[in-house]
Hints:
The protein is built from 20 helices and two strands. The protein is mostly helical.
Amino acid sequence: xxxxxxxxxxxxxxxxxxxxxxxxxxxxxxxxxxxxxxxxxxxxxxxxxxxxxxxxxxxxxxxxxxxxxxxxxxxxxxxxxxxxxxxxxxxxxxxxxxxxxxxxxxxxxxxxxxxxxxxxxxxxxxxxxxxxxxxxxxxxxxxxxxxxxxxxxxxxxxxxxxxxxxxxxxxxxxxxxxxxxxxxxxxxxxxxxxxxxxxxxxxxxxxxxxxxxxxxxxxxxxxxxxxxxxxxxxxxxxxxxxxxxxxxxxxxxxxxxxxxxxxxxxxxxxxxxxxxxxxxxxxxxxxxxxxxxxxxxxxxxxxxxxxxxxxxxxxxxxxxxxxxxxxxxxxxxxxxxxxxxxxxxxxxxxxxxxxxxxxxxxxxxxxxxxxxxxxxxxxxxxxxxxxxxxxxxxxxxxxxxxxxxxxxxxxxxxxxxxxxxxxxxxxxxxxxxxxxxxxxxxxxxxxxxxxxxxxxxxxxxxxxxxxxxxxxxxxxxxxxxxxxxxx
Length: 487
């Protein structure tokens, strides 16, 4: 396009991009590029990555404070890639950065709430029960049975802060367009994780990852099963990876049944296949049961002739997959998930749970937050619970927070699901109804998965859990306020 001034090309952004052509800007960018290259060559890839992170830190923090929804997107992205970045050799406390991002978002919520009060986010059974749960975890600091207060300090900062993120999500997710963006981001990141698992399965682990795996005998014993490595993709472990694939599959299934354009459904089918197949690479038997269980809940909530036909066909497929003879190690491990009596690890878990039951009954408030696992070994290595393997989210709650904490936790999960189901039937807009149903299935699957494994303690699934709870409330609020379409 030619401008009126003659032969010069017309630039519609003239005046906004002139600074790019200034010699001082070009000189500065050139110096920065050269310095970054030199630092990367001298200090390695991790140094270059740290410099880039440092350059992006200040504008990112500013953007998170001024545009909190952008901060939510950044939080989810970093939660997905946290352990992948660690494995790249970046020696930087990114976990603390993630905690800081959550703290900034909570601070932004406090500031925004003073300017624009909205006390409705603290009302209702879900909000009230979350406050009760956080309060009980804070009360654990005075638990007389706790062996270490430092273990509580290190644990409560993740438990309480992540739980409070529910209020951030409910407050700042305000439009249907934002809900769509979040779900597209969720599916995109899960697809990236599935594709990286394919890379690990068929091309092998990168040299750096393989060296890390083989350097620790415990990793070998846990991840090398029957001559086959369990895959974890970009996550911390195979359990986290497989559960995330389950959530992605459930999102795809609900969207395929919903009122979306046909071209989107065509795109979702291969995504569903990739996620479902890559889940088998993890070798996590607890995850294999979640999709069929969630489909039963789907058939109950969305009862129709088509759904029942689909449920029957899915049942035949799973039954055939369970009993078909195979030499494939992934499918063989899938089949054992439906025969827990033949699973040695399941029997060990049952023995551990029977052994710890008297302790739970005699300690109403449990042994204190962080009493088991990494923090228990670090701060109270000689305590009774330090080396106890909970192997279950519910067992961990019972051991650390006592039968009182387990009772509150079960009430919490019941309220999440019952409120979500009630609001699902109240929502009128078909699109919002579809999103609400998807989030109910996510919560249902994670609750079931929290029994054989710990489903709610690691990134990104712990963030996605509270995001799902918040999205149910957001969808109901948008429908109730007649804000079903963007304006």
